[in-house]
Write a structure and sequence with these properties.
Elements: H1 9-17, E1 23-27, H2 48-55, E2 59-64, E3 72-77, H3 80-89, E4 98-100, E5 105-111, E6 119-120, E7 125-127, E8 132-136, E9 146-149, E10 154-156, H4 175-183, E11 187-189, E12 195-198, H5 200-210, E13 213-216, E14 221-226, E15 231-235, H6 237-254, H7 259-262, H8 266-279, E16 292-295, E17 298-303, E18 306-310, H9 333-340, H10 346-361, E19 369-374, H11 380-391, E20 396-398, E21 418-421, H12 435-442, E22 445-449, E23 456-460, E24 464-469, H13 481-487, E25 488-493, H14 505-535, H15 543-556, H16 558-566, E26 567-576, H17 577-590, H18 598-613, E27 617-623, E28 626-636
Helix pairs in contact: 4-5, 5-8, 6-8, 10-14, 11-14, 16-18
Length: 647
Amino acid sequence: MRDDANISPLDRLTVLLGADAFFVPCEHGTKKPLVTYAERPFAATQTPAYSAVFSASPTNIAVYLGEKSGGLCAIDFDRDDDLAAFLATNPKLTVTTHSRGSRGGMLWLRLAGEFPRSCQAPQFEWRADGNLSTIHGRHPSGVDYQLICDAPPLTLPFEEIVWPEDWELPWVDDPEAKLRLLYGEPFYTNDKGAIAGINEAYWAGMHATENIVIFEPDEKTFYGYQGATGLHEVESADLVRTKISARMLEASRQANAFDLQKKRTANTLNNVITHLRGIVEKRGVFTTRRTFIHLANGVIVFNGAEAELRPFSPEFYSRNRSPIAFDENAPCERFLDELVRPAVHADDVELLQKFAGMFLLGDNRAQRILILDGEAGRGKTQFANVMQGLVGMANVTQLRTKHLAERFELFRYLKKTLLVGVDVEPDFLSTKGAAVLKGLVGGDWFDAEQKGGTGSFQLQGNFNALVTSNARLKVRLQGDIGAWKRRLNIVRYEAPAPTRKIPDFGGFLIREEGSGILNWALLGAQKILREIPETGGDFGMTPRQRGIVDSLLAESDSLRHFLSERVVSNSFEDLTVTEIVEAYAAFCPERRWQPMPITEIQRQLEGLMLELFGASKAHGIERHGKHQRGFRGVSFRDSNGAGALPL
């Protein structure tokens, strides 16, 4: 290859490896990519902006191998002896691209037709789809990469590569040979041929090979894949131990190695389990943001806002699914015409649809709580029942704000996606633990501890939350009005109650129109996926919807609003606690607010008077010849908005 100082390294490598090679810039002296590349289309690597990254400063250049680069693959040798043995059996490959880092060497080939997945053997590493291999720059050891042979990569079918006879090949269709390659022999014998010991790693590897199983280290739990449902379901260590023991028994009979049966002791099996944890460990596979919805008959996968039904696959790593089957032609006329549209404002129909889609996604992308309030018998509970049936009761748990500050409450939420509080009391959001709910829907991290368990694990608050109440809820604000405003959506059920009530109407609708309701909710999911990126993590609200939330928060802080609007500083006047309470009680109905209980007024009043007016409580306010508790230096505003004048 011509060495021209006026040609950049990227251009020289493009000439060498071909215009379809997928190049990735990496930090100089490391293998760390400077850009995201795995999901980047090839066309995006051909722009001037992308090319400029390679020349901005000294940069390593790597190649994204396999299909992404038109079948360009590499064979990596760590030892010179192994490379020499390979070239001795493949003399024609001495004139293919050959690079070197700190030791050994890498042969670059362009494969015509199919080739194995990336894998590793004792003598070499086959680098293909998903691998990133550096060809230019500085090796982490400090030496520069070299081109030993700068001829273009040879093109040949994989079958024409000749492998030394004594090399074990990972892609050979021999599961037992692969296990021996990775873990060694299954057992060890003494000089008399009797089994002296068990290779515990081998049997752990066999179980991992023959079963789709993962271990979640944060939860300290095994999950086994169930092909019939497409779910990864919890498997106890005892069950896994029993399966391994049974497999060892089967193998002993097949190989006539009956001494193997005697080695299946509890201690040995526990050691196998320990190896298995390390082999199949996958941390956080269930907590990544989902772009699919698992259903009874397949998985809806979203590409942007477009949707496609795909068959079950363990690669989805799903442990939550809706029990409803997808039927693209199914309607939900009674659900919409009898339960939703007659009960709520037209704006709120779409809001409910978006929340239904978010419930199905199992991830609270908008970080919001849905509250349905209004008088009894308007359909709030039945709508909540429909949502629970749609998501699947196995994925739902009761939301109990009064327990949220307690030690073990959060463990109940493990593996759940929807938290529901139905027909809650008016103080549901004003209990001590209610503030935790903001974090449970807002992405905060918590320590979840199991009662009677050992230790704790971290849990991220991406839960959806649905609350219904026959009364207007009061929020325990604690000065955090902004956070609550960002979290709440309220749908008010103000329409007249239906003349004809159907018992368990929500359950009936799920049974009769479940697939149709699913279609309606899937449209909501598409709206969410399209709208949230455009709005920076939220979805749009109308002025009316915002006004309802503002009103609820103002009502929750009604004493502050009353004092700010109706009381002023006045150095010549004073007010008793009784006068303030009576005036507040008259103020709330003007706003259609429910006054706070007298005990709550008295608890807040002293602090608010000091904060707003600098007035501390006095015990000598004279009224009708008696001394009462109150505050000096304040008075009620007159009708013109000024303080009352002294007499």
